[in-house]
Amino acid sequence: MIQTPDIQRPPKELIEGLESIGSATAAGELFRLGIRDPHIRGLTARSPGSSVVGPALTLQFMPKREDVYVQGEYVDPETQLHRHVLYHTQPGDIVVVDARGHLGSGVFGDMMLTFFKGRGGIGAVIDGCIRDFPKVQRLGLGLWLRGVTPNFHTQTDIFPFAVNAPIACNNVLVMPGDIIVADDDGAVVVPIKLAPELMKRASEHRDWEDFSRMKLFEGGHLRKYYPLSPEGQAEYEAWRGEQGKQGAH
């Protein structure tokens, strides 16, 4: 019987603290924390308006070689590792797949992703394709994909090789259990050890951006409010104090 490792999931409060920041803020603040480019490029947001934050279940595909992979799709389903990564699904998980950018293999289809959704999965980030897209899009999952195809997962040139191991998703390292922040701007990988500091910084960033956005909409000048000038900063501090007083009533 095949055994694959599970991931260590972050505390719930850490996920909740990152849910409102968005991928753009996450990417910018991670840059300031030393991660130059956490964005998994080349994927299209296929569920407009979706925003997900959760730990990464990881699946690695490799090129087929005839002496290593010789089976058809349903000869022995339990040997198919793309099933096993989904067996680990817990509520709030995101499955992240290095499918080598391949456009001829549908990593998951309707049935697999229905199972994933039923187990509480919230998103799929795949450097590759899925199939059965018209049915899958009705599941309400967040989907970030290279594309779609009618082919099944091992029909052409690749096969699933490892579950919950480090992967290179379009040349971005994803460790099992890293936090994914994904929305219409794209999918960003948050190294788990940086997540607490990111949450703290991103919360502060969100607050002053809310203030600046309000002032710019009212006709305030970009020089004053983005980024905050010393004068704008003083106004922001006063505004934040007022918000705190109002919240106390």
Task: Indicate the topology.
Blueprint: H1 12-18, H2 22-32, E1 39-40, E2 44-45, E3 52-63, H3 81-87, E4 94-98, H4 110-118, E5 123-130, H5 133-136, E6 142-148, E7 158-163, E8 167-169, E9 172-174, E10 179-183, E11 186-190, H6 195-217, H7 222-225, H8 230-248
Parallel strand pairs: 3-4, 4-5, 5-6
Antiparallel strand pairs: 1-11, 2-6, 3-7, 3-10, 8-9, 10-11
Helix pairs in contact: 2-6, 6-8
Provide a concise account of the structure shown.
This protein is α/β, with parallel strands linked by helices and 249 residues long. The protein contains 8 helices and 11 strands.
Could you please say which CATH topology of the largest domain applies here?
Glucose Oxidase, domain 1
Number of domains: 2
Provide the CATH architecture of the largest domain. Answer: 3-Layer(bba) Sandwich
For the biggest sheet, the summary is:
9 strands, mixed
Please give the count of helices.
8
Apparent shape: elongated
In angstroms, what separates the terminal alpha carbons? 60 Å
Structural class: alpha/beta
Q: Quote the average pLDDT.
A: 92
Overall description:
The protein contains eight helices and eleven strands. With 249 residues, it is an alpha/beta fold. The chain folds into two domains: 186 residues, Glucose Oxidase, domain 1 (3-Layer(bba) Sandwich); 46 residues, no CATH class. 34% of the residues lie in helices and 23% in strands. Strands 1, 2, 3, 4, 5, 6, 7, 10 and 11 form a nine-stranded mixed sheet that branches. A two-stranded antiparallel sheet has the order 8-9.
